[in-house]
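Sharing a chain and its predicted structure for anyone who wants a worked example. Both blocks are below, sequence first, tokens second.
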Amino acid sequence: MIQEKAIPLALEGKDLLAQAGRGSKKTAAYAILMLQLLLHRTATGPVVEHAVRGLVLVPTKELARQAQSMIQQLATYCARDVRVANASAAEDSAFQRAVLMEKPDVVVGTPSRILSHLQQDSLKVVVDTDLPDSKPWLFFFLPHIPFYEGKR
């Protein structure tokens, strides 16, 4: 399973590029780690303003829906502590802006929809400067967007 191979390497701080077949639960491989980090930072870090702290980019609206669903399933028992939103959902943009203004912990979306929300200022992402190489990863996907740095 992809999780069995990927999670230990990621816990060691290694960068990963992985490929697995359809239905192999690839989303779980990164979502489990993301949820663990978010919950750990919430429990041990200083109290800070609530902000989007996880950004998941997927190539299609359907994969955004599937990723959001999987992350919500994994977060079932900590749903009060971790909120997930889909920025590529079919709802109108006013509804999406309202959802994003609530500052969910994790936002899932396609690069074009995320870029649109960032440009409209309806989405702000806090980059955790305690994480190695977090900024370059985000800029690789969204090179022309200013990010707001924050310490946890």
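Comments welcome. Strands lie at 54-57, 84-86, 106-109, 126-128, 148-150.
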